């Protein structure tokens, strides 16, 4: 999308504003599918947690995607949009058994990552096919918060607990139809990913009736010019060759599954915020925008680097700015960043705002969540209304104080 197109959307829909480019999502989906075109059966399950707007889910459904979900509500969103239960996999962590049963009743693929839950589920529902999430004990991912396949992670059943898994499966006669792993996000070294895949292949030999092997995702996308990314084409060539060899050895056709979230939607997203104040101090020039970590927390939470452009003045002289929000705590999007000259009222565009941005937004400071717009077929379509003050009040219940609490002057003095 161009700066001019984004500027016009900011004028039409106001700020702050999330914008998603449908064509970019499609290109990423096609690129990933094409990288594994040599595999007979490939399934891409979009990770709903990255961006759960139902218009985005509809778009991916039309492309042929399935869904990777982590909560009952994400499953319900998928069914609401029209996904078939068999095209949804549910991979929870630490949820109640009641939620697991509620999802089971909806007919989606269950993925279990806990020995006690596996035994409980197998005892109660031995005829329902189950996938098992394995922790391969591989350190991968660009940040400690998003590395989830290492030995200290709460996710998955340790590969070293395979004898326990096999005993439970034998005792309950449950049907294991899939194996799964997810090592983490922002994978740079595909050799590490391939090493973890070998661990999963070795584990798969213990189960004779598998239908699929799910390798998770975590493919890195570039955040700025010159940034490195996962070489998806090279990974596709190497993993496809190894997967095809394994299925031949295994003796039956298997489906190779992935669950990309960030890879599909990150680069498609733009976050637009208007500059309220330009503040010069003795050491810094601050550009303060009409948003904060209540809308866009990734820079503060993960230390993520999002390229920022002044789309009001895209060809101006560059200066150094620290871009901050309006939250009453440390609320810094970027430190000492080179951006074209900023004036109050200018609109800044934050790139790579499609994944884990709106989905992690909150009403902190009782601020309203922004609108969302999908850029499709050359025009902007509103896919979420901007919140109103009535939305803030909607589920709150005021006290009906018949006898108001009285505090005497003496009590206040004592306190």
Summarize the structure.
It contains 13 helices and 18 strands. It has 415 residues and is an alpha/beta fold.
Give the % helix.
25-40%
Count of strand segments: 18
Inertia-based shape? globular
CATH first level of the largest domain: which class? Alpha Beta
- The overall number of domains is 2
Separation, N- and C-terminal Cα atoms: 59 Å
Query: What are the segments in which pLDDT stays under 50 over at least 5 consecutive residues?
Result: 145-150
**Would you identify the CATH H-level superfamily of the largest domain?**
Alanine racemase
Strand percentage: 15-25%
Mean pLDDT score, rounded? 92
Q: Evaluate the radius of gyration.
A: 24 Å
Biggest sheet layout: 9 strands, mixed
User: Tally the helices: what do you get?
Assistant: 13
Give structural notes:
There is one protein chain. This protein is of the alpha/beta class and 415 residues long. It folds into 2 domains: 244 residues, Alanine racemase (TIM Barrel, Alpha-Beta Barrel), CATH 3.20.20; 121 residues, Lyase, Ornithine Decarboxylase, Chain A, domain 1. Helix content is 31%, strand content 23%. The chain has 13 helices and 18 strands. Strands 1, 11, 12, 13, 14, 15, 16, 17 and 18 form a 9-stranded mixed sheet that branches. Strands 2-3-4-5-6-8-9-10 form an 8-stranded parallel beta barrel, surrounded by 5 helices. The radius of gyration is 24 Å and the shape is globular. About 1% of the residues have low confidence.
């Amino acid at each position: 999308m161009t700066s001019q197109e984004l500027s016009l959307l900011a004028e039409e829909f106001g700020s702050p504003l999330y914008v998603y480019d449908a064509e970019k999502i499609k290109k990423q989906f096609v690129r990933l599918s094409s990288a594994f075109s040599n595999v007979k059966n490939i399934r891409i399950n979009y990770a709903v947690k990255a961006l759960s707007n139902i218009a985005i889910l509809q778009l991916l459904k039309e492309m042929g995607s399935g869904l990777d979900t982590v909560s009952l509500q994400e499953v319900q969103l998928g069914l609401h949009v029209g996904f078939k239960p068999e095209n949804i996999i549910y991979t929870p962590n630490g949820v109640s058994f009641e939620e697991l049963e509620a999802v089971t009743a909806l007919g989606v693929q269950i993925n279990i990552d806990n020995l006690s839950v596996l035994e409980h589920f197998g005892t109660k529902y031995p005829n329902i096919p189950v996938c098992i999430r394995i922790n391969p004990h591989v350190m991968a991912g660009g940040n400690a918060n998003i590395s989830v396949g290492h030995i200290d992670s709460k996710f998955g059943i340790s590969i070293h607990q395979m004898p326990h898994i096999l005993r439970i499966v034998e005792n309950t006669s449950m049907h294991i139809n899939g194996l799964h792993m997810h090592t983490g996000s922002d994978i740079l070294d595909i050799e590490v990913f391939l090493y973890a895949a070998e661990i999963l292949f070795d584990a798969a030999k213990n189960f004779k009736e598998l239908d699929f092997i799910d390798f998770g995702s975590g493919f890195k996308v570039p955040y700025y010019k010159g940034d490195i990314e996962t070489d998806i084409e090279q990974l596709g060539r190497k993993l496809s060759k190894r997967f095809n060899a394994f299925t031949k050895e295994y003796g039956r056709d298997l489906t190779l599954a992935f669950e990309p979230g960030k890879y599909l939607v990150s680069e498609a997203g733009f976050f637009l915020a208007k500059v309220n104040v330009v503040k010069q101090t003795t050491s810094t020039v601050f550009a303060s925008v009409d948003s904060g970590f209540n809308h866009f927390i990734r820079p503060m939470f993960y230390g993520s680097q999002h390229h920022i452009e002044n789309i009001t003045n895209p060809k101006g002289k560059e200066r150094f700015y620290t871009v901050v929000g309006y939250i009453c705590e440390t609320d810094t999007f970027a430190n000492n960043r080179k951006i074209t000259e900023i004036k109050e009222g200018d609109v800044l565009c934050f790139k790579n705002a499609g994944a884990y941005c709106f989905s992690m937004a909150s009403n902190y400071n009782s601020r309203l969540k922004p609108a969302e717009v999908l850029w499709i077929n050359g025009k902007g379509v509103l896919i979420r209304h901007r919140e109103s003050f009535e939305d803030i009040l909607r589920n709150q219940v005021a006290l009906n104080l018949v006898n108001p609490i009285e505090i005497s002057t003496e009590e206040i003095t004592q306190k």
